Amino acid sequence: MALGSAQITITSAANYIPELWLMEVIAAYKANNVMRGLVTLYNHNKKKGDVLHIPNFTRSLASVKAADTEVVVTAPTHSVTNISLELHYHYAKLLEDMPAIQALPSLRQAYMDDAGYAIGRQIDFNLTNLGTGLQGGTLDASPGTPDVPTMLYGAQALIGSDGATAWSHFDAGNAAALADAGVRRSMRRLDDVNVPLTNRAWVVPPVTRESLLGIPRYTEQAFQGDGSPIKTGQIGNLYGSPVMVSTDAGTTSTLSGTVTPRVVLYFHKSAFALAEQLRPRAQTQYKLNWLGDLFVVDTIYGVAELRNDAGVALIVPA
Fold first, then answer.
1. How many distinct structural domains can be found in the chain?
2. What is the pLDDT of residues 214-229, one digit of tens each?
3. Domain carrying residue 186
4. Which of 22, 252, 256, 270 is the most buried if burial means most Cβ atoms within 10 Å?
């Protein structure tokens, strides 16, 4: 017996197929990550173990070959960085039958997008927190919370105006807006320790984007060729390194407690690492006792600083 178009097919039931939900969540997750694409990524998806041991290769120097002598054999000791896979975050919503039936399908889409955003933002928090360890600083042990993280930066952090003066949290602090001198000094700081020129990036808060748009060499046609930053309000790169604007760029505290300066990070991808043991997964279950669908997205990962001289933290006013 032919049923015509009465069958329930994969197409008509698409909104109830978890695999499609997962694809939507991952798309939102990737779209809302800033830091993830800028750091070293270790794919440990669904593999066993709770700690990754990452070898840190120690480079050697060339030796002079003297006449009539043996070659000089060296045996450098290579260190290791451990990444604990200890961070397990989730996003959960229970959608009861009445709103599920009465609401537009876009409601489910909104929750999928929100799940990807929340998980992506949390990972950004954890990676941003690693900035406290740059240039020999002490890593902030705080894992980050669902808000702009306040990290405790020491004197190893510098101020944005010159990239050379140590940050001080006394009284209201000495934070200063990012200026061209600070940009160039930060670049030199990485150059001096042979950090590769490629795969460097800036992660700045919106207040720094505002400052950069006021620096002529980054905006005006005489310097940029077409003056595109003035036309679009976007700053593509600073001397070859991309600029990523993030509302989740960290804050730091002062003893006065009246101001919360923001943090600019300039780093190479070798500075930080993200190890994903469980990429964001979406699961659903109908809960009979609640007459609704439980929708949960979770992820397991770890973050670590790999090379503390491959980046610099600059403190700027809020």
1. 1
2. 777 666 544 444 545 4
3. 16-57+74-316
4. 252
Residue 85 exposed, middle or buried by CB count within 10 Å (0-12, 13-18, 19+)? buried
C-alpha gyration radius of the chain: 24
Judge whether 23 lies within some domain: yes
Q: Tell me the C-alpha to C-alpha distance, in Å, between residue 45 and each of 250, 255, 281, 296, 302.
A: 28, 42, 11, 18, 12
CATH number for 222: 3.90.1690
Angle at 116 between CA 114 and CA 122, to 5 degrees: 100
Token representation of residue 57 = 């290769």
Q: Say if residues 37 and 274 touch (Cβ distance below 8 Å).
A: no
Whether residue 64 is contained in a domain is answered as: no
Q: Which residue type is seen at 178?
A: L
In a domain, 10, yes or no: no
Helix (H) or strand (E) holding 99: helix 97-102
Tell me if 122 is assigned to some domain.
yes
